[in-house]
Amino acid sequence: MDSFIQQLINGITLGGIYALIALGYTMVYGVIQLINFAHGEFFAAGGYVGVIFLSFFTGLGYMETHPILCLTASFALAMMYCAYLAIGVEKIAYKPLRKEARLAALLSALGVSIFLSNGLMLTQGVYDKAYPSELFQGGFSFGIITIGYLQVLIVCLTGALLVALNLLVFKTKIGMAMRATAQDKTMSALVAIGSNKIISLTFGIGAGLAAAAGIMVGLYYGSVRYDMGFLPGIKAFSAAVLGGIGNITGAMLGGLIIGMVEIFGAGYISGEYKDVFAFIILIGVLYFKPTGIMGENIDDTRV
Amino acid sequence: MIQEFKKIWKQYAITMLWLLGLLWPLLGIHPDGTLSFKQTVNVWSYIFAGTFICFIFYIINKSGNFEFFTKPVVNTSQKLGDIVQAMPSWIWKSALLIGAIIYPILTGRYPTDVVINVLLYICLGLGLYVVVGLAGMLDLGHIAFYGVGAYTYAILNVQYGIGFWVCFPLAGLTACIAGCIVGYPTLRMRGDYLAIVTLGFGEIVRIILNNWMSLTNGPNGILGVKTIGILRPVMENGLTFEIFWVKKLEYFYYFALALAILTIIAVTRINFSRIGRALEAIREDETAAELMGVNTFYYKLLAYAMGAVFAGFAGALFAARMKFVSPESFTFLESVMVLSMVVLGGMSSIPGIILGVIALIVLPEVFRELESYRMLVFGLTMIIMMLFRPSGLIAAKRKKMMETKS
Amino acid sequence: MSAQPILELKNVHSGYGSIKALKDVSLKIYPGEVVAIIGANGAGKSTTLMTICGIVPLEKGDIFYNGASVKNIAPEKLPPLGLCQVPEGRRIFPRLTVEENLILGAFYRNDKPEIQRDIEHVYSLFPVLGERNRQKGGTLSGGEQQMLAIGRALMTKPKVLLLDEPSLGLAPIIIHQIFDIIADINRNQGTTILLVEQNANLALQAATRGYVLETGQITLEDKASSLLHNPEIRKAYLGE
Q1: Which of B5-9, B21-25, B265-269 has the lowest mean pLDDT?
Q2: What interface predicted TM-score (ipTM) does this complex get?
Q3: What is the third-level CATH fold of C7-237?
Q4: Which pTM does this prediction carry?
Q5: Do B235 and B324 reside in the same domain of the chain?
Q6: CA separation (Å) from B257 to B98, B112, B342?
Q7: CA–CA separation, B347 vs B402, rounded Å?
Q8: S-S: A272 plus which of A97, B211, B310, C78, CB 3.0-4.6 Å?
Q9: How close C107 gets to chain A, by Cα (Å)?
Q10: Count of domains forming chain A
Q11: How much is the pLDDT for A205?
């Protein structure tokens, strides 16, 4: 039982991280129907920029005096960096292909993904880059259950970001405009909503969330690697599809499910096959509900 | 010239500034708490110089100043095309065939090796063409079937000592079974849902290959796979047969060539058959096809299984050539490569796909010198090719099939 | 009738790729008018409106709004200028509520109290929308959707309202209701209306002037009442 609760906590932590990444996939898909394969690389870039700034602040000596401020600044800077990266990528590699076949944009996205992960490798090195390890050691202990301070931080921050996103999308006018653009771009233009701005905004927000997830993964596992975007990327995409792609609540739910399945699968079935469980659940759910858990019927747009 | 292309110039300038802003945090912020600009500016100026030259060429070409050069080239290639069209098809087909046959004799070991790769990827690409190009199903895990084929041969050969000619059809069969296992639950999904499921399946296969130590030897792979053996008659004392191991690359080349030709013939036949038409109907409008009496599920499964079989055959041959298989050869990147070949080739013409394969195998070989920059260049090439030729090198005759619903 | 047209199309050519939908179309619409464009299926009526709004690219010719060319203005910049379209098939946002649909009509505006007043005004024009303001747009009936689409367009405070087939697929009683409202908008708010219809009888009764569009070309232009009594028009479009 104790280990069950421990696993549950670990599952929520991991699931929250997947949910953050999945949101970027689902939002971009909702607005331009593109599987943005470069999204995993935005996540990795966020992890790298986070460690760059954290080490920079450590080097300056601010980390001891103002740890919370430094951490907040690193998160903010990494999120802004990734938003900047994503908006540029969209303008260069996706926007010219919007009117072309969907596969063209998809391949372009795959190209961006390869390009970015190799760019990270060339600028940051092939080996793991360690996060400052003295951050958030220890945790709360209840008997044999431990909740690390870091886990508390990750869960709280994830929750805050998810709430903020929900408020933005469902309560503000700009969120309404995003949903409208996702539903009908021509009609949005006819009521003065510029789809280019909305698309840039969507990419920016999605990448910002991915960057936050990247830092969290870096802090949680202690290091980042240039190719770390791939597996979490496709698992988060699975999460987005599992929840019903294009649906924001679905992506959060899907992320949590995938995170839980992975942790429990690794704990109770087999650690070696932990990456497989996510896909098996995905295939299983889609078999019974082909549009995902919360998805509505999407158009029959094919390849 | 500057006025005319003001907008493009502006875009280019903004892009370069964007890149500068992108590079600086990665290169200019150091863990010891210092900031530097030198390295960033250095790297950036290399990129700037490189892209600037390309950009100037692009502008000159766009403004038509290269016409003195491009026009004759286009004219001659058109004339050549006319001549080729005027000839009966068997002439150039047999010319191509003869060229392919004498190729290893004319060239060395390395070029032959590259072309064997091309031939194997032609089988893979054409298999994927049946799935993506004909049936319109986005498959991101095609390489898994290649892996299944390769491992089938490797395991049967190394552990049970079964020869190539028994394993070859078995490799196709296991790939086919794997295709049906994946296809059966997934093919009712449409569009991008299918894409992620096939991607997931590809990963599952790779992870299983990586972890099932007793069967696949995990990440170390299986060593010592025997090459193809054929019986050849010996006339020493009467007529007896002895096993001849195809060890030389040049001989092996002919097996790859034969498989590629068989695949081309088979896929061409499928293309113009009843099945091909059914698949195209499904691609254009699945609901309409179903209403017209096409059993869409059956045909989709058939397409998926056929694609898998071609990949399985190619996989067996791959294992025989490398004499070694490991999960490393069957990563997602390989699936992406094959898909790129099909899309680059224009999605619905067999010559186009062959051209796409050649482009994507031979080009990176040219850039082999760049070593660690190779994949960077590959990614960039993919983006640029899509930006300039979004419908592929040889555009599909019916481009409409892939247009987005607006 | 004032001397300067509020909206003018000069020798407009446009189309979809190789298909030329409009060939040399010229129109003049004066402030305060209701102008009808009638024509058969595929004559290019909807394309005309989409070209005015910049959705279908203009190939040749020019479009003037308030005397200034709008051919290089992005579609989303037109509603703030007072040019708004209710497209064919209504195209409300199906997964947004009625109220959200209306708020998005006022997307470019930032005057909150004014927007609230305008929403109330739309509800007073179409009381049924007020009753269903929390309902998803996609769950409304065809007539209600048409009302919502018109209401949403009114939220942009249009000076010129382009209406594409407002009667399509609706019951006669609803059609009359909607045409009454259209007349009301024109009369009370002074909004200029360009109306595209297949139902020529209805359109010409509501309009002051009419144009006849045939295979992408204007073949006739006259007062609506004269068009209504033109024997050829009666034969071709009014089923006599």
Answers
A1: B5-9
A2: 0.88
A3: Rossmann fold (3.40.50)
A4: 0.89
A5: yes
A6: 12, 11, 19
A7: 9
A8: B211
A9: 7
A10: 1
A11: 96
